[in-house]
Write a structure and sequence with these properties.
The protein has 249 residues and is an alpha+beta fold. The protein has helices spanning 2-16, 21-39, 47-58, 63-74, 106-119, 149-159, 180-189, 211-225, 241-248, and strands at residues 83-90, 96-103, 123-125, 134-142, 163-165, 171-175, 194-203, 207-208, 230-235, 237-238.
Amino acid sequence: MSGHSKWSQIKRQKGANDQKRGAVFTKVAREITIAARAGGGDPDGNFRLRLAMEKARSVNMPADNIKRAIERATGSSESDQFEEIVYEGYGPGGVAIIVEAATDNRNRTAADLRSRFTKAGGQLASTGAVAWQFEPRGYITVSRKGSDPDDVALAAIDAGAEDVDTETDPVEIYTSLGDLERVRRTLEDAGVPVEAAESAMIARQTVELEPTKARQAMRLVEDLEELDDVQRVTANFDIPEELFAEVAG
């Protein structure tokens, strides 16, 4: 999980300094709208919507914005008819990349993605070309403040978690996708301070890149994430220690 842990640490640090809050709100609002349209506007009965709303709160999205996103999905309006599409591609060094998008114009989205992959020396691939290198899993983070990582790990395993990384800050917990809600609820009921819980695409194996290629791959991931239609980007390369220290330090 080391590659994913490094990525998540960098994402959290960058997120704390992200000045493009409007773009962040746009992505989260789309996630809320899609979740509400698929499973209804009641978060108590729609786990995916509940996760999306929690993500919105974690980026300080105003409650009115969250409410409007749900109302757009559950009302009679035909606007904001986004569809979810997963794109696959190869980046610098041949790394595998999964791009999860929410778009109202798949031709525009595909063209934008193709342009960025090509500019970086990579390419979009056909469906299934790289997806086999990833697996969907539940991903939970727990604050280390006021918590003993070993106690968190024991509680998580008892709750049904598959893996726990106590070396990261926050502690990272991995579950099967179907067990995510149950593990999260069990941890919260036990008083464990859960920071976030979401579904994630995790690389089955990571590949090592030399620093130059790693920098190029990271720039491609950042370029892809800047697109409004892109919800999440996952790559299967590990970040070299020296580059990780440079970026995260």
